[in-house]
Amino acid sequence: MKAVVDIIESGLLELYVLNLLEGDELAQIENLRLNSSEVNDEINKIELFFEQHALQHSVPVSINTELKLQNLFHQLSSTGELNISNLPLIDENANYQDWFNLVENLIPINGVDGTFTHLLTGNEKVMQMLVVSEIDIKKEIHENELESFLILEGSCICTIDNSDFSMGPGDYMSIPLHKSHTVKITSLSVTAILQHVAL
């Protein structure tokens, strides 16, 4: 029993929980954990303490960082095929051909009269929609949401303040906050994925 008390007071259990033991010490603690309810209980208490400490001292993550992490986890677990009921965020690495294949059957085949939209994702954090437009997009300024879009078909010129960006299939644009922007259609129509992320 003295050996168990000595082990508990030695700090080895804390090192074990932090995965900092190796060799004989690691084998000794793993053996004690299996054969001593007192050691096992103490390890459970230490794990709970570390968990509570981490929760109490955690730093809040910005919504933008949280969404980027969710997108990264989605990409890591993805088979490479987009799922319309669980779409990733678009970004500069988005594959426009994958997105086009996903929404191709939603695109009107006889053209549109002005603008066509189809909501793909809609919740309090993210809005994603398919947009087909034959007309220019008038000036907008966003104060509390991040707007971006991915061109699937057609061409356009996106003007942000006084800078022009020619865009075509596969091009991605992220609109800075508080900047006026317009889109001039330079083909018969433009098909894009439009995304708004709330801040």
From TrEMBL:
InterPro entries reported for this sequence: Cupin_2, RmlC-like_jellyroll, RmlC_Cupin_sf
Domain of life: Bacteria
Chain ranges of the Cupin type-2 domain: 131-187
Name this protein carries in UniProt: Cupin domain-containing protein
The species this protein was found in: Pedobacter jejuensis
